[in-house]
Design brief:
Number of domains: 2
Strand order of the largest sheet: 6-7-8-3-9-10-12-11
Bound molecules: iron/sulfur cluster
CATH topology of the largest domain: Rossmann fold
Radius of gyration: 21 Å
Structural class: alpha/beta
CATH class of the largest domain: Alpha Beta
CATH architecture of the largest domain: 3-Layer(aba) Sandwich
Distance between the termini: 33 Å
Order of helices and strands: EEEHEEHEHHHHEHEHEEHHHEE
Helix content: 25-40%
Strand content: 15-25%
Largest sheet: 8 strands, mixed
Number of strands: 12
Shape: globular
């Protein structure tokens, strides 16, 4: 059984202009120890999905679908069950680590408080655990950094401390929302290495939300590509980079600069994500798709296997997880062929 199973998740916001469907029938699973990347442009529904998992949406409403964590129906949890789930089983790390800490308390005290919120331990034990957690996330001289305030940490170090705080409840799933955005490239690489270590050594499952395909390539096992609230491609990371099977993914990959690139200009996807209050009919990507045909404007494609394998798979399974894309090309409904000119990473 998958650790996390999201099925047909649909989230709506109610605006002055009408109903905005931010997440539309999204399904995916995460296995224990697996790192799943959720990738897409701003407004694709990535953060809304993460918040919905823990029922942290302030204005939005989950109007359809199910979320099961380790067999437990999250949408049916009582407030007490939700409190146990948050932090103890599932923890979140956001892009802005400053906001995770109160500036008037030391970083160490706040992590120790996190430990005490989840476990009945003495202050002294909590302090020791907090120092161990700072060491676990590679903060140098953790005992002396314990008494430093958030403003005394660099951006990268504070992000590590935010991860330490998230680990205080010993969760099974860590949701990281754009954890490396705004951090310089070398520190970014160290953070990604840390996340990969947490997954492989501690068996932590990670949902990594990002707009950066380089981050995905670095540490994800599988990827869900979101476009305008729906999954348009789901694949093991290598298949996604070597055989992108949706024009949107292909466009994203083609627009990444590479070493030795001799292109004068990087290709870019025309247009932008559609207005989610007034979404295009048929395939939600058709206004931007260079391969669109008449059927694309009227019928919405569903996720179909692109390699004949229908298993959802996961790490440790005998079969490779299925590579699926939501494009009429995979139901034989397009007249032309999709031939992408994509140079892989
Ligand atoms: Fe493009 Fe049509 Fe495929 Fe949508 S269904 S991605 S418009 S070819």
């Amino acid at each position: 059984m998958a650790l996390l199973s999201v099925e047909d998740l649909t989230v709506q916001f109610y605006t002055d202009r009408g109903v905005l469907r931010a997440v539309d029938g999204l399904s995916y699973e995460i296995e224990r120890g697996e790192t799943l990347g959720i990738v897409g442009e701003s407004g694709a529904g990535k953060t809304v999905t993460s918040l919905a998992l823990l029922r942290l949406l302030e204005d939005g409403e989950i109007v359809d679908g199910s979320i099961r964590f380790d067999g437990q129906d999250v949408l049916e949890c009582s407030p007490a069950e939700l409190r146990r789930l948050r932090g103890n089983r599932v923890a979140m790390v956001f892009q802005d680590s400053q906001s995770a800490f109160n500036p008037v308390y030391t970083v160490g005290e706040q992590i120790a408080e996190g430990v005490r919120a989840h476990e009945d331990v003495s202050r002294r034990e909590a302090r020791e655990r907090a120092i161990d957690l700072l060491a676990r996330v590679d903060v140098a001289a953790p005992a002396s950094r314990y008494t430093d305030y958030p403003h005394e940490f660099s951006g990268g170090m504070l992000q590590r401390a935010a991860i330490a705080m998230a680990l205080a409840g010993d969760p099974d799933l860590l949701i990281c929302d754009e954890p490396t955005t705004g951090i310089d490239v070398t520190v970014q690489a160290q953070l990604l290495e840390l996340l990969a270590e947490l997954a492989s050594e501690d068996g932590l499952a990670i949902q990594l939300v990002t707009h950066d395909l380089g981050v995905v390539a670095e540490c994800c096992d599988r990827v869900v590509v979101l476009y305008a609230g729906a999954a348009v491609e789901c694949a093991p990371v290598e298949s996604l980079f070597y055989e992108p099977s949706h024009p949107y993914t292909a466009g994203l990959l083609a627009s990444i600069p590479r070493l030795g690139d001799d292109r004068d200009r990087l290709p870019q996807l025309p247009g932008s994500i559609p207005d989610l209050v007034d979404r295009p009919t048929g395939c939600r990507f058709h206004p931007r798709c260079p391969y669109a045909e008449a059927i694309c404007r009227t019928r919405e494609p569903t996720l179909e296997s692109v390699d004949g394998d229908d298993s959802s798979g996961g790490p440790g399974g005998d079969r490779q997880p299925a590579h699926r894309a939501a494009c009429h090309a995979y139901t034989g409904d397009l007249e032309g062929d999709l031939e992408y000119e994509v140079r892989v990473l």
